[in-house]
Specification:
The protein is an alpha/beta fold and about 325 residues long. It has helices at about 80, 105-110, 125-135, 135-145, 160-170, 185-190, 205-215, 220-230, 250-260, 275-285, 300-310; strands at about 20-30, 40-45, 65-70, 90, 95, 115-120, 120-125, 145-150, 175-180, 195-200, 235-240, 270, 315.
Length: about 325
């Protein structure tokens, strides 16, 4: 498969999104790492960051994109025949996608009998999402769970995110927002009245590293958490621990010291880097920039956790 950057070409079918409709990639049931209890996580499409360790690269671009699951392919050739751009051809072991010619029109996904070609990204309405989430209400009530908006970045579609959260609250559900923090304050103002818990990412206090590995500076992220500390909303701060990026006592303690300086101190959850995103990059025809990177050791995670606790900040290790 060819490699390249995620496509962000505009698609006409998604140019009139409103607060009642938006673009998502998936709705995951029985999520247990996206907030308290058993939850249903809605993955929004579109993100302002390009984290090199991203485990959901299909959510980065703001338009639908074709993913190729080579293990599912039965080499029937129907996709090649159907492609209007001639972007597909038969390779020795798999279908070859010319990503420069592919317009992500989705015709190949419609004719593929094996779900090897899959469109990542679809329109959804607030009503459709809430109806799907409601199916698992007994699990929420028994576990203290609810709905979580993740991505991508939900605040990339602020009106839609606010509408989904508002509808969920009106239905009596616990609501959670998983955010990278890189969004205008007006986006937070739109969702705060309908949000019970915010899972907030702080990746590094080092702006140079933040720019190098996410494509953006961290000033907005830090300003927003400072403002959120003044609001009446529960917040848990989370930091992905990525070897070679921020997996040192110095880097992690800097985050702890920053949290100590806020009007209220938030708990910090350290999330060890994992390699699950690599296969997703491949399905999109992209080169995974951290292919040689290995997860941090349990010993290192324990050391970082203790260093944060020694600074007076509650700290745990997540998944």
């Amino acid at each position: 498969m060819s490699t390249g950057q995620l496509q962000t070409r505009p698609k006409a079918q998604f140019t009139h999104l409103t607060s009642a409709a938006g673009l998502i990639t998936d709705i995951k049931k029985f999520a247990i790492h996206d907030g308290p209890g058993i939850r249903t996580t809605v993955f929004f499409k579109g993100c302002p960051l390009r984290c090199q360790w991203c485990h959901n690269p299909e959510t980065q671009g703001d338009t639908p994109v074709v993913a190729y699951y080579v293990a599912n392919c039965i080499a029937c050739g129907r996709c090649i025949e159907a492609c209007p751009e001639g972007a597909l051809s038969r390779g020795e072991d798999a279908i070859i996608i010319d990503r420069r010619a592919c317009t992500d029109c989705g015709v190949c996904t419609e004719v593929c009998p094996a779900e090897a070609m899959v469109m990542q990204g679809r329109g959804a309405t607030v009503a459709e999402i809430i109806a799907e989430v409601e199916k698992d209400r007994p699990f929420y009530e028994n576990s203290g769970g609810g709905i979580t908006l993740s991505g991508g970045e939900p605040l990339y579609q602020p009106q839609f995110a606010a509408a989904v959260l508002q509808a969920a609250k009106q239905a009596g559900l616990h609501t959670c927002l998983d955010t990278c923090g890189y969004a205008p304050w007006s986006a937070f103002e739109a969702v705060l009245p309908h949000t019970d818990l915010i899972l907030y990412d702080i990746k590094t206090m080092n702006d140079k590293l933040h720019r190098a590995y996410t494509g953006r500076c961290n000033a907005m992220v830090l300003r927003n958490i400072e403002a959120l500390a003044e609001e009446d909303v529960a917040i848990e701060v989370r930091t992905p621990v990525v070897p070679g990026v921020n997996a040192t006592v110095q880097d992690i303690v800097a985050i702890a010291d920053f949290l100590k300086g806020l009007p209220r101190i938030f708990d910090l959850e350290l999330l060890p880097y994992h390699e699950l995103g690599g296969s997703k990059f491949e399905r999109l025809g992209l080169t995974y920039p951290l292919a040689e990177l290995k997860p941090p050791s349990s010993q290192l995670m324990a050391e970082l956790t203790q260093a944060v606790r020694d600074r007076g900040v509650n700290c745990s290790v997540g998944n």
